[in-house]
Design brief:
By secondary structure, the chain is an alpha+beta fold. A six-stranded mixed β-sheet has the order 1-6-5-3-4-2. Strand 5 and strand 6 form a beta hairpin. About 50% of the residues lie in helices and about 15% in strands. It starts with a helix and ends with a helix.
């Protein structure tokens, strides 16, 4: 009987490359080293985890504390969160506001605070989450007005990558050079990071 870990090397993962006819395959650097993407974890880490997520995705939100702990405990993982707001206008608002907060130095805390919100999101709840970590929502909206074009361009690139990879929804992960088009449990992420390091060494 195959374990969940053994499945990682099989059908659950695809090697990085052209995956969806009709879309130009982005390079690995375009996906995980986009200079507009804030980096969580170790910016000089040897393995990058890129998660395609939505602030209204229950699976993304449930996994996030475990993902943070994996990154913290490992110490050598780059983590980039690729917003793919497929669940409507409020998901777009959350992504825009969290990215706008980066200009004020609040991205990691703002991201965690919005991910921690339970239940339905509203504009007010997103603003309250930002205030809870010390960010002034009005100041963040001012920055959003200034940076809207660049932020929307980043989110659009994330969406184009998701379409090129034929992703069905969130979450999905690019870990090293392997694509996982589904939610992963914490132990599967740990195994995928180990596999990425094995790929590099091989």
């Amino acid at each position: 009987m195959m374990s969940r870990r053994s499945l990682l090397a099989g059908a659950a993962a695809a090697s990085f490359g052209p995956l969806q006819p009709g879309f130009a395959a982005p390079s690995l650097d375009e996906v995980v080293f986009d200079p507009a993407l804030p980096v969580l974890g170790n910016d000089a880490g040897d393995v990058t985890i890129a998660e395609f997520f939505d602030y209204l995705c229950p699976s993304c939100k449930a996994l996030h504390p475990q993902l943070k702990e994996i990154v913290r405990g490992d110490g050598a993982i780059r983590l980039v969160m690729k917003d793919w707001p497929i669940n409507g206008d409020i998901a777009w608002y959350a992504s825009r506001m969290v990215h706008a907060s980066a200009a004020l130095g609040f991205y990691p805390a703002a991201h965690d605070a919005v991910m921690a919100l339970e239940g339905a999101l509203t504009h007010g709840r997103v603003d309250d989450a930002l205030r809870s970590v010390g960010a002034d929502a009005g100041a963040v909206r001012d920055r959003l007005d200034q940076r809207l074009k660049a932020i929307d361009a980043l989110i659009a690139r994330n969406g184009a990558h998701a379409e090129a990879f034929a992703l069905a929804g969130t979450p999905a992960f690019l870990i090293g050079r392997r694509l996982y088009r589904r939610a992963l449990a914490a132990d599967e992420i740990v195994a995928a990071v180990a596999l990425a390091r094995k790929d590099q060494a091989g």
